[in-house]
């Protein structure tokens, strides 16, 4: 399952800087997406909508990738979801 987490990270990494550029706390935004038992698609779409207002052309290919990340996350076992959350928290601590 570690490979599944790495696949999610590889898929979301190219988009996070752009998607979370105007966020006060990008790690908190990221945790919001992955905190519940299911990927928070409503929050993801809100982030994407804000981004698409700023950069509509760049936003178009991002939407399918973002929804795919949600599908991958939802398919993870609970322990792997927890591991992904811990990785985000650890990255946040290292970034401060």
Walk me through the structure.
With 96 residues, the chain is mainly alpha-helical. It has helices at 2-19, 26-34, 41-54, 56-75, 78-95. The protein is globular and about 35 Å long. The N and C termini lie far apart (29 Å). The mean pLDDT is 89.
List keywords for this structure.
96 residues, 5 helices, mainly alpha, globular
Structural class: mainly alpha
Uncertain regions spanning at least 5 consecutive residues: none
Roughly what percent helix?
over 70%
How much of the residues is beta strand, in percent?
A: under 5%
Order of helices and strands: HHHHH
Major beta-sheet overview: none
Distance between the termini: 29 Å
Specify Rg, calculated over alpha carbons: 13 Å
Number of helices: 5
Mean pLDDT score = 89
User: Globular, elongated, flat, extended or rod-shaped: what is the shape?
Assistant: globular
Q: Please state the oligomeric state of the protein chains shown.
A: single chain
Number of strands: 0
